Amino acid sequence: EVQLVQSGAEVKKPGESLKISCKGSGYSFITYWIAWVRQMPGKGLEWMGIIYPGDSDTRYSPSFQGQVTISADKSITTAYLQWSSLKASDTAMYYCARSYCSSAYCYYFDYWGQGTLVTVSS
Amino acid sequence: QTVLTQPPSVSAAPGQKVTISCSGSSSNIGNNYVSWYQQLPGTAPKLLIYDNNKRPSGIPDRFSGSKSGTSATLGITGLQTGDEADYYCGTWDSSLSAGVFGGGTKLTVL
Predict the structure, then answer these.
(1) How many CA atoms does the CB half-sphere of A14 hold within 13 Å?
(2) So what's the pLDDT on residue A107?
(3) B35: closest CA among B103, B100, B106?
(4) How far apart are CA B6 and CA A106, in angstroms?
(5) Residue A54 contacts by C-beta under 8 Å, 6 or more apart in sequence?
(6) Averaged over A103-112, what is the pLDDT?
(7) Among A107, A91, B18, B17, CA closest to B6
(8) Nearest CB to B97: which of A35, A44, A59?
(9) pLDDT tens readout for residues A59-102
(10) Interface contact flag, A109 B100, Cβ < 8 Å
(11) In this predicted model, what pLDDT tens digit does every residue of A36-49 receive, in sequence order?
(12) C-alpha torsion A5→A11→A14→A16, nearest 10
């Protein structure tokens, strides 16, 4: 059974750093891409970026480039999303999702993690 | 502002049919596959339709997808109260070199 299990909810202060995780199981982790999707409170889905754990090839949405870092450790089948300096506006639910990309195009998300709620407040 | 445009809400009675539209441009829907996701309250999104009109295993044939030009449509027949959810379209945008989603449509089954 394919599963993406995310780390637990976080409460942080503005300016702090954070790294959340997404552990894949039940499939070949290095064969598929893992994306991160943001959902701010009461709002829609936003595509942040995507990584290929096989070689760490990473693509970012222009809206999130430079704001976050996506990484992966294929030895422990885990992808990460990290911030160096959180802002209150980073408060949101963050989902990881499995996908597949060609050299020029990424496809649909067939499996999703349960979400990690990040709250940034002073 | 979102790249793909969806109506904020739709509603219909149990047993009826509803359609949800998703409008884009040649850089996204016009030249790439569309997928649809259902997000029940308090849960993660779930894939409903991929490659414009294909259903993953386990998705009932009450759900269907179509695409024409720069627009796509999700259809749901035989509405059930359990279908009340937010629905999102998604695709790739070749100009942005990134994935994009619609703003989401809240379905109410009256």
Answers:
(1) 5
(2) 87
(3) B100
(4) 21
(5) A30, A31, A74
(6) 90
(7) B18
(8) A59
(9) 999 999 999 999 999 999 999 999 999 999 999 999 999 998 88
(10) no
(11) 999 999 999 999 99
(12) -60
Angstrom CA distances, B48 to A11, A59, A67, A74, B69, stand at 32, 25, 31, 29, 21
Q: Is the pLDDT of residue A103 over 90?
A: no
**A40: nearest Cα among A87, A90, A82:** A90
DSSP-derived letter for residue B58 is: T
Is the CB of A113 inside 8 Å of chain B's CB atoms? yes
Residues 6+ apart with CB under 8 A from B96: A61, A62, B3, B27
Instruction: Give chain A positions within 8 Å (CB) of B101.
Output: 37, 44-47
Residue B21 backbone dihedrals phi, psi, to 5 degrees: -95, 160
In the predicted model, what is the mean pLDDT of residues B34-42? 97
Q: How far apart are CA A7 and CA A63, in angstroms?
A: 24
Judge whether A95 is closer than 8 Å to chain B, CB to CB. yes
Please give the mean pLDDT across all residues of chain A. Answer: 96
The token pair that represents A96 in the structure block: 């990881």
For residue A35, give the H/E element and its range.
strand A33-39
Contacts of A102 (CB under 8 A, 6+ apart): none
Residues in chain B whose Cβ is within 8 Å of chain A: 2, 32-33, 35, 37, 39, 44-47, 50-51, 56, 86, 88, 90, 92, 94, 96-104
> CA B27 to CA B5: how far, in whole Å?
14
